[in-house]
Design goal:
transcription; Lambda_DNA-bd_dom_sf; 14 strands; four-stranded parallel sheet; Rossmann fold; Substrate-binding domain-containing protein; 3 domains; 434 Repressor (Amino-terminal Domain); transcription regulation; alpha/beta; six-stranded parallel sheet
Length: 342
């Protein structure tokens, strides 16, 4: 039976060094050639091959540096905590899986030289894939998170917007609402260059909302409003909606921050929630449970989204070849702002 002593003798190092290398001791100062020689000898003489295989893989990953590209700024993260939750999850699971985030890039000012030194890249948001390809041509080591367009050449993680909106509208229909408004935001395909903001792209929540409402014969184009995803924008768009002589009895708002602003406008106008207008948001950020009335919303799972993105990238770094596209489900949280039980 092969032992650590056998490996040490063949590698011409101490048994203590062999043990620390095989246990992936990060405090050990030893050359990479020596590490590789120890792993190779251990495999050759059959020293716990499955364990050695796993440890070698961990050792290789520990030297990998990945880039995290976020279009959203630090200030925008404060406005919508969903994105900070995704980022924190990515950072947490990188550490858990033994890879390092070498650099966090934000916005369009990407240091291309530094980026190309990364072994892999996670991109959060709808960044133009043509621009990504130009500055980071290795599509086998890129994972797209929350990209609203389908890009089959890259691994991706996205939310199941179709089922989410279907569940919201089914609940509102059940409560007797047919005149349902929408307050959403404008989506853009962001550029990695001086243009920064590229062409507009459809918000999938709005697309599915309009499709279902049309199928049911309840669609009112005058009830559709687009803002800029901020709380202030939700407030202003609800004020515009309330100016309509024939206003809706319910409103789906595509993000919780916008929904909180919309509720403020309803309070100021003396419109009772949910008796005169039901409100449903999206994201289930923590504060949504503490507004008055508590906000019904769609719960997404940023922790799982971030974890899945890291898992996909690690699999790619370990050699997986086919692309994978993971869709994460949602859950409707019914609170007082829309009334009724699920």
């Amino acid at each position: 039976m092969a032992t650590i002593k056998d490996i040490a003798e063949r590698a011409k190092v101490s048994t203590a060094t062999v043990s620390r290398v095989l246990n992936n001791d990060p405090s050990l100062s030893v050359s990479e050639d020596t590490r590789e020689r120890i792993f190779a000898i251990a495999e050759e003489i059959g020293y716990k091959p499955e364990r050695i295989k796993r440890l070698k893989k961990e050792n290789v990953l520990s030297y990998k540096q990945i880039g995290l590209l976020l279009w959203i700024s630090s200030d925008d993260e404060k406005e919508d905590p969903y994105f900070s939750s995704v980022r924190l999850s990515i950072e947490k699971h990188c550490e858990a899986m033994g890879v390092s985030i070498g650099k966090v890039f934000r916005g369009s000012n990407v240091d291309q030289i530094t980026l190309q030194q990364m072994d892999g890249l996670i991109v959060v948001g709808s960044v133009d894939v043509d621009d990504i390809q130009k500055i980071y041509p290795n599509s086998n080591a890129v994972v797209l998170v929350n990209h609203l367009l389908d890009n089959l050449e890259y691994d991706s993680v996205k939310i199941n917007f179709h089922k989410a909106i279907e569940e919201v509208l089914r609940h509102l229909f059940k409560l007797g609402h047919h005149k349902i408004g929408l307050i959403s935001g404008c989506e853009y395909l962001y550029k990695l260059g001086p243009e920064k903001r590229g062409r507009t792209i459809p918000d999938l929540r709005q697309l599915h909302f309009e499709r279902i409402m049309k199928e049911q014969g309840y669609y009112h184009p005058d009830y559709i409003y687009n803002g800029d995803w901020t709380t202030a924008s939700g407030y202003e768009k609800m004020k515009e909606l309330l100016s309509k002589p024939d206003r809706p009895t319910a409103c789906f708002v595509s993000s919780d921050p916008m929904a909180i602003g919309a509720i403020r406008a309803l309070h100021e106008a003396g419109v009772k929630v949910p008796e005169e207008m039901a409100i449903v948001g999206f994201d289930a950020i923590e504060v949504s449970a503490f507004v008055n009335p508590p906000l019904s919303t769609v719960k997404v799972f940023p922790e799982l989204i971030g974890k899945t993105a890291v898992q996909l990238l690690v699999e790619r770094l370990e050699g997986r070849e086919p692309t994978m596209h993971v869709t994460i489900g949602t859950e409707m949280v019914v609170r007082e702002s829309c009334g009724g039980k699920k």
